[in-house]
């Protein structure tokens, strides 16, 4: 009999960021003492904000005394936090109720876990370039993967395919890696497609807090019909600097039914069977993010990264390099100069300028010829990287 | 096409502890102001120990400053924590290496997640009475479940079935709910069975720290051959009071291969794709548990719950009631008096003595006629519950 999940044999052995780490480590081994400007992995660098820090200290103290000690948390999340998140949506006239919100350990964890709700015969539809874990997690489930077109001409907005197919559709806006944002029109097309085909959209909103322009949706539920076809997976990783602290949230609307089953009720069943809830301390930290003061603080945090993006775009403009993203996104997606490949460009940046970036090819075939820069680095590193790229250009490395 | 995982339809709608909560809430609604002695759900009541509290405050401070801030954690766990856990095994001559240790969000999360490694055609073998989530998680995966005999005469030690079948075998020692411990001989039988049938044992060691007797294994790897056939899933929930704080660990030995695949490598692939690691703050807390001082502190914690068990067993002895467990376990598994059913006994305890317990029937058919008491309550509640049970007996309710 087959014992193991043989689908694991079908995923590539190594993982994009591990590959990058290896190349950087190899280079550093030969050049000890050199410092790399790390604009590769999308990891934040600004510390947690004061409200969050205060809330966590208080929560730790609660756990230090029998009278205030908290044991098992509700599996779907602390009701107070679920309610705060729902209110945060409602304040923007987005119709989300507390029992539609689930607290998670973060978007990356949730994007894998949520697949359990779906039959393994249902294909996944992943517009590329895309976060590689989308495809990998589905390959490990044995799902077929469909890659629809992305409209390069239209700022990398993904488009539904011409043929109708029922699928689990991945949308990420602002997008990782391209920094593109889905407009209302783009989302309307996808919602119409999903409703028509009985598909389900997994809307990855991990970067929603970087949307700067008023007319760009930050939640898919800003578009009518989305509650009938979409799950929204979000995170505090980028919003509030929680990459190493861990807490996120997922919305599964009460209107979302397939095969006569309510997806919200299925997820409740999943969580009550398969978890014992997210840490009390981390949920208290998340509550602080959604407080009035917390919201002010994270807005300042976004301003830091937005200023980074502005400074970096200015440098690329000066160097005469073409890019997308950066405006409503912490990612800048640069076209590799002079027809170079993305790993080739990666190597030039690493070896000639000690800049770590992420090769576009790592996000799928359509990412070849592009490279991603993360604006989560420190201001000093961003400014210095911009300077070095201008110099590379002047010295004809690019 | 089928969109959803229809196996969800096969799991019972409601969950044991939710049922219990409902009954208690209903009773409280009619008897406002009454206090329940909560010996039902196995949730701890003692606060986190000083070393853990100190480590978490420090970790929060690290996250508050850019110079010490930590972003994404390694997906399989902080190398220092993995190393500390391996050393903790090695000190007891149990051969576990750091790269065999994975940091988790706790045993309940891991017991669900780890199923992803296995083919859904492989049956699960679950000796009952058992933690209900074992079976539920497998039903939700569509697995067939085999229930082998448990030897009631031999202190509830589970026995391998007479026929050979390849399966995912669940063992829990000290057991939830019976409080029974697997002896070396018992584990040797299971390991021989697993090796012979190419089965894999999932050894749930969440209660290992309550083993008091020297000759009882606390890890399955104390038994030769276990590294070829067993995964050990453990947790700090009961060991260090982490039920609401969340952190655990899993051991997947390098010797464990099935279908030509190395389970350890598969789990690395799973974690790197499907998580972004456990919170820095929680891993720092876990490191404190495995420090020298931390180990002293948790030993004192166990003494509190052990003293509870002693006091409660004394009361049951005085009342002339039969029970198992309690000696190497925080659970006492009592035979319902006078041939009563376990929900009937639950109701008598709730209504006549305001004691919440857990009906044995909730752990499978073979648990009918038994009831579980958790010793994780406060000393005062345990002593008072003992007194009330003696009174129930004297007043012939039992």
Order of neighbouring strands in the sheet with most strands of chain A: 2-10-9-8-7-3-4
- Bin the strand percentage of chain A: 5-15%
Low-confidence parts of chain A, pLDDT < 50 over ≥5 residues? none
Cα-atom radius of gyration of chain A: 21 Å
Q: Predict the CATH topology of the largest domain in chain A.
A: Aspartate Aminotransferase, domain 2
CATH superfamily of the largest domain in chain A: Type I PLP-dependent aspartate aminotransferase-like (Major domain)
Secondary-structure element order of chain A, N to C? HEHHEHEHEEEEHEEEEEHHHEEHEEEH
Q: Could you say which overall geometry of chain A the principal axes of the C-alpha atoms support?
A: globular
Head-to-tail CA distance between termini of chain A: 55 Å
* Largest inter-chain contact set: A-B, 80 and 80 residues
* CATH architecture descriptor name of the largest domain in chain A: 3-Layer(aba) Sandwich
The overall strand count of chain A is: 17
Oligomer: homodimer
Number of domains of chain A: 2
- Helix content, binned percent of chain A: 25-40%
Structural class by helix and strand composition of chain A = alpha/beta
Our count of helices of chain A gives 11
Can you tell me the CATH class of the largest domain in chain A?
Alpha Beta
């Amino acid at each position: 009999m087959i014992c193991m999940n043989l689908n694991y044999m079908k995923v590539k052995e190594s993982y994009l960021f591990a590959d990058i780490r290896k190349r950087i480590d190899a280079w550093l081994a030969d050049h000890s003492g050199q410092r790399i400007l790390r604009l590769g992995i999308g990891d934040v660098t600004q510390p947690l904000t004061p409200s969050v820090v205060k809330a966590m200290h208080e929560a730790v103290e609660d756990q230090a005394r029998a009278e205030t000690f908290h044991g098992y948390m509700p599996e779907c999340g602390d009701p107070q936090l679920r309610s705060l998140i729902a209110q945060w949506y409602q304040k923007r006239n987005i119709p989300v109720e507390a029992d539609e919100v689930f607290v998670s350990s973060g978007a990356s964890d949730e994007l894998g876990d949520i697949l359990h709700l779906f039959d393994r015969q249902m294909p996944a539809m992943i517009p590329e370039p895309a976060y590689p874990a989308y495809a990998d997690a589905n390959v490990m489930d044995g799902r077929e993967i469909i890659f629809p077109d992305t409209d390069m001409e239209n700022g990398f907005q993904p488009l539904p395919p011409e043929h109708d197919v029922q699928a689990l559709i991945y949308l990420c806006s602002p997008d990782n890696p391209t920094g593109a944002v889905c407009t209302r029109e783009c989302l309307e097309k996808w919602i119409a497609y999903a409703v028509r085909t009985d598909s389900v959209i997994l809307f990855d909103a991990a970067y929603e807090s970087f949307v700067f322009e008023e007319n760009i949706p930050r939640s898919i539920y800003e578009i009518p019909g989305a509650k009938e076809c979409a799950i929204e997976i979000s995170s505090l990783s980028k919003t509030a600097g929680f990459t190493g602290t861990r807490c996120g949230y997922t919305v599964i609307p009460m209107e979302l039914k397939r095969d006569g089953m309510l997806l919200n009720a299925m997820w409740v069943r999943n969580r009550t069977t398969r978890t014992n809830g997210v840490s009390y301390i981390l949920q208290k930290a998340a509550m602080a993010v959604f407080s009035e003061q917390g919201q002010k603080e994270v807005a300042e945090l976004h301003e830091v990264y937005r200023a980074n993006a502005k400074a970096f775009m200015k440098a690329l403009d000066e160097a005469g390099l073409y890019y997308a993203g950066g405006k409503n996104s912490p990612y800048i997606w640069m076209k590799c100069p002079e027809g170079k490949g993305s790993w080739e460009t990666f190597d030039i940046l690493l070896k000639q300028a000690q800049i770590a970036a992420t090769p576009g090819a790592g996000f799928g075939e359509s990412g070849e010829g592009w490279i991603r820069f993360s604006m989560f680095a420190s201001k000093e590193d961003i400014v210095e990287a911009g300077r070095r790229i201008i110099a590379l250009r002047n010295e004809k490395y690019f």
